[in-house]
Design brief:
This protein is of the alpha/beta class. 35% of the residues lie in helices and 15% in strands. It has 11 helices and 12 strands. The mean pLDDT is 97.
Amino acid sequence: MESIGLLMLCPMNTYLEDELNKRFNLYKFWNYPDRKQFLSQNSASIRAVVGTATAGTDAELIESLPKLEIVSSFSVGVDNIDLVKCKEKGIRVTNTPDVLTDDVADLAIGLMLATLRRIPACDRFVRSGSWTIGQFKLTTKFSGKRVGIIGLGRIGAAIAKRAEAFGCPISYYSRTKKPDSKYTYYPTVVKLASNCDILVVACALTEETRHIINREVIAALGPKGVLINIGRGPHVDEPELVSALVEGRLGGAGLDVFEDEPRVPEELFKLDNVVLLPHAGSGTVETRTEMADLVLGNLEAHFLGKPLLTPLV
């Protein structure tokens, strides 16, 4: 497979990059400032693309690669891949589901604890020497809080299972009610937000779920409610979220994703009731290695004429 041209869209994982370099004729897109010129000179030799949740494969890129056969995403989310165009052209698409479920669910619980118990603020309080002159203010209990989850897929279900261990009643919203679920179902996000203390975004990003967290939902969650987003940044109307937090109309937020990553609204930096993470949901050595192996396995399967491991298209 060494002669097969493969385009890697951005730096994502050293192990994956090294393995791709061994197995393919690897092009690193970020090394070519003039991308149009690069594509005009090399498009005919590129048969595979590897991207991420944020560095996707749009219609323009697909059209510029006439020999493209497969797009393998180093993420579970594929909202930045034009799936319709891929289907039209017979281009296979794979992602990395399941292997990152535990890490993302763990992090969601971590964000709940960190936000309600103000763990980052406590840490800053000790490091600054403030503890020598006074006590940290009281925080909010997590155990027993009503947790509402938007999207009861793999990750949503894993979050629910973990939250149950803290004695949290679970409810959820999804496109349809899950017949085998024991959790309380609400037919709208507003009703879910009205009946929980912590609202977790764990659904896929689609046109229907873009800005699923809007002013109405935030109002329903209220000044004592907490929003946790481990989904995608565009799930949330970010200006509305920022104003609600600044004005005290929302109790707090734990955010792993943002609308315009890596740019984060600076108004959030001064708020102790907000915990900010750099899209680190799957960011452990173990999981990123498993994700890389899935990408490699899918590419190898495709070019050897074997069934794909995690096909989407």
